[in-house]
Amino acid sequence: MVSARLPEPLGTGPFSVARARAAGLRHCDLRALGLHRPTHGVRTLTPPETLVDRARAWAQALPPDSAFSHVTAAVVLGLPLPASLEADSRLDVMRTSDRTPTRRAGCRGHRGLETRSVVEASGLRVVGAADTWCDLGEVLHRGLSVDDLVVAGDAVVGHGTGSASAAVLRSTLDERVRPRGRGQLLEAVGLVRPGVRSPRETRARLMFVRTGFPEPEVNAVVRDAAGGWLLEGDLVWRAQRVDGEYQGATHADRGRRSADAHRAGLAADEGWTVLELWSEDLDQGPRRRATLLRFARVLGLDPRHLTID
Description:
The chain is α+β, with helices and mostly antiparallel strands. It contains twelve helices and eleven strands. α11 (254-269) links the parallel β10 and β11.
């Protein structure tokens, strides 16, 4: 195997040509091994498959004062983005303003690292989550929407300590001088909420809010008449005693469906109505309209006063 012919100091991960030479390999040896070249000066045993894999390979050749930023940082940090952005093979690399931006085929070079926090994630230097969220305002022209910013912002807040983390997003944005996409970022940060556990939960909440529904509590605890724990609702309208439950992939097996049905029955005994929400209910079309009308009836809302399209 190729890995058996590599000097032990190189291991099995990506390595720089400089490290290979220091380990005793010549350029002709590297060519003979049939290694992959993710970028100039870097070799790998197998081609990088994911963005994180590519970033790990590129890190072998980047100056030590660099950090991954923008879309690359968001993906490394686990912030949800549209698939079209995550599929972009180019990496975002940032340096301080007094340094020459990285210029390599397959990357976008940025400046301004001195004004951003830097953290380590997946073994990589990346711009911190709050700063990365603000930097996403620079990629709105690549198909990112305000709702996408809210989804990413909810994920950032989910990594923090409740509503204080939302304040960090706003203060980070306020510290920027003429940031790109400021208007959309301001709109999005006003819609970011703590406690959201999935992008589709965020989009379900936004669907109701944008239609004119009162805003629900997110992942809120509901108690029975005796004060005991009854359920934790995804979208809770407490005054109307209504809970909207988003049913993701984890709810598909029989055991989970049985537990959900039992919980809904217990809630009904306490005067609560539990309505299910599925991914298809959020997409534009007749099913979305029927879902909104169903929730409006249960909540006692007049559809004429809602923007149900």
